[in-house]
Write a structure and sequence with these properties.
two-stranded antiparallel ribbon, globular, Dna Ligase, domain 1, Arc Repressor Mutant, subunit A, homodimer, 5 strands, 5 helices, 2 domains, alpha+beta, DNA-binding, three-stranded mixed β-sheet
DNA sequence: TGACAAATGCGACTAATTCGCATTAACAAG
DNA sequence: CTTGTTAATGCGAATTAGTCGCATTTGTCA
């Protein structure tokens, strides 16, 4: 899922390009987040990152996610009734659906939804900064 | 904005129809929520309701919102970084947009977004239980 | 009217996230 | 390299939205 080129060095470069200081903690956190296929919470990230670098603290994971979100490198998924989850900003845009039975988070491929929102928002004289969509659904 | 018929008695009936006990607290809370044009948080509701009935507690406002949401009478709007807000379940469906400058919550009329989501979800073998969309946007 | 389940107020509690502060370390300039 | 500046870190305390336990009250329905 992750290209062989996306190793630690690339993430370091990615941080630098965004004008962020490259600390070992940030590099570890980003590495873990990039290697993960699901959408981890801060707690998930914290635990996995500790296996790689036991100097990171939860506070730093929170701060790093916040910083990366502002830099547009990471997307935060706000859940209805559970801690937020994160993903690397996807190249292929998509939305998310929560399976109410299992709690699974399913990706909805395609950009239709975002496009429609953009269109509709511009009709009201706005342009979208970000959108937070939670679709709760059940298998048919 | 609120029809003259929607007085306290109607709300009492609405609760009864939903199979819920009609307590004075619930009647007061629903009255306040119905008379409000904006989208109040629990804190807002609590304060306004106290002016009408000083026996209500915050806990009851939380519990009432939860009960009414499950009954499909109220819609909860989950915010990114602020307490949840509520509205009476609208007869004319719409989504919401938060002006990131002012914090204002703007209603987006129309059902296009919900329809698209339903279509897209069914392609994945799901049917939507509920969806909350909050678009964060900036005036052009 | 009485019985019983459900709802309430209160305050204690939980869980997610943020913050203050002293310390450390990244980076740019020399 | 060294160094000065400034941002980032760890820690634990603080904050905040929301929930819970429990004793008491109160709708509802027979």
């Amino acid at each position: 899922m992750v290209s062989a080129l996306n190793n630690g060095l690339d993430y370091r470069q990615m941080l630098r390009d965004a004008g962020l200081r490259v600390t070992p903690q940030r590099a570890s956190i980003v590495t873990i987040l990039s290697e993960t296929d699901d959408h981890p919470s801060v707690e998930d990230l914290y635990e996995k990152t500790r296996t790689l670098d036991d100097t990171v603290s939860v506070a730093t994971v929170y701060r790093t996610m916040s910083v990366l979100e502002n830099a547009g490198l990471v997307r935060k998924l706000v859940m209805d009734d559970a801690p937020a989850r994160y993903e690397m900003m996807p190249q292929t845009d998509h939305d998310h659906l929560v399976d109410v039975e299992s709690g699974d988070l399913v990706e909805i491929p395609g950009t239709e939804i975002a496009e429609l929102m953009g269109r509709v928002a511009s009709e009201l004289g706005y342009h979208i900064v970000s959108h937070h969509t939670v679709i709760r659904a059940r298998k048919v």
